[in-house]
Amino acid sequence: MILFISDLHLSPRSPGATALFLQFLAGRARQAEALYILGDLFEAWVGDDDIDDPFHARIVAALRAASDAGLKINLMHGNRDFLLGQGFANAAGARLLPDPYDLVLPEWSFVLSHGDALCLDDTAYQAFRARVRTPEWQSKMLARPRFVRRLVARYFRWRSRNITRAVYADLNPAATDDFLRDHGYVTFIHGHTHQPAKHDHIVDGIHVERWVLADWHEDRGECLVWNGETLQREAVVFENRP
Amino acid sequence: MIKLTTNHGVIALELNAEKAPKTVANFIAYVEAGHYNNTIFHRVIKNFMIQGGGMEPGMNQKPCKAPVENEAANGLKNKRGSIAMARTNDPHSATAQFFINTVDNDFLDFKSPSGQGWGYCVFGEVVEGMDVVDKIRAVKTGNKGFHQDVPAEDVIIEKAEIV
């Protein structure tokens, strides 16, 4: 069994979603062989020296505990946490994936992505993305003191709130068709748009499924479950326990 | 007194309104609303507790009212035969689900008003039908969906009433 999640946007300002994720890692996730986090686990990430921040340390420890218990954790960058590096991955016991990533299983194949790279109609964002995803920009950024990076991250979030339309930009249809063609018409799973749905594409006469993952809220998260035969959405809610 | 009629027999509960006034009022409101009728004991761990009151057969979660304040600091202990409220990891999040301790579970008692220390609020005890609780704790359990320790055959609370 394989689980896919994305867009948790964890931060100290989302204690509910954070508690849900910790419960998920300690319980439900451990019944799976592998977990794929397809971007924006965190609302912001300013560099792997942030692992020692108490909020992050709890999440890193929970990921590590699940990983030590046998869960294979795979992590992709999102548009918010694209500075997550090998240091974080090592501490969390996770593997960093390139975006896109071809997941080939014995029984089925998938292509995984965060999804932001295909939102071509959001030209302002694409210009920003092109700039910050270069090694030059990132090494310059990471060389700055942490308090400066935090200010820069806060500025980016403020700016993105001010220019983002009420509705999240969606994937560009032509670019998506090309993407599906390039990846051999396999099932496409992504997040980013916060518009969970299953889309049916016909590309070159071939039916291709595109599953959009749900973002997490303070009282509810969601994972997509591959049980070896089908994909199914499953709610992540607080469990009552003693 | 509260009478729980299950498909394994009757469990009678004496509630402690003096020590846990809000929790008892909350529980009685659910009883009066008929909430517990046709719910199941969905989590059964033999040497720990039996938990129920929130799911219908088929593991469908029933809607609940607003959570009740955690009164676990009332001095009542999670000893065998006591009934306490289940909750999420937020100390003040108990709604309808409850559990009956099948052994002494000191580690569930209140320690301090902080995250892990809050414990689970005991608000009554089984006064009749502990043999029924023992029958339920011994049923065969397994995984159902993503839930663990679910009885293989439904343990149903057919009716909950005030007597």
Give the gist of this structure.
The complex is a heterodimer of chains A (242) and B (163). Chain A is α/β, with parallel strands linked by helices.
Kindly describe this structure.
The complex is a heterodimer of chains A (242) and B (163). Chain A has helices at 15-26, 54-68, 86-92, 123-132, 135-142, 146-163, 173-182, and strands at residues 2-5, 34-38, 72-76, 94-97, 101-104, 109-113, 187-190, 197-203, 206-212, 221-226, 231-236. Chain A has one domain (2-236): Metallo-dependent phosphatases (Purple Acid Phosphatase, chain A, domain 2, 4-Layer Sandwich), CATH 3.60.21.10. With 242 residues, chain A is α/β, with parallel strands linked by helices. Chain A is built from seven helices and eleven strands. In chain A, the strands form two sheets. Chain A has a six-stranded mixed β-sheet. By secondary structure, chain B is mainly beta. Chain B has one domain: Cyclophilin-like (Cyclophilin). Chain B has two helices and eleven strands; from the N terminus they run ββαββββββαβββ. In chain B, strand 3 (39-45) and strand 4 (49-56) form a beta hairpin. Chain A binds chain B through residues 19, 22-23, 27-28, 31, 234, 237-242, and chain B through 48-49, 51, 54, 61, 78, 84, 86-90, 93-95, 97, 99, 105, 108, 120, 143, 146.
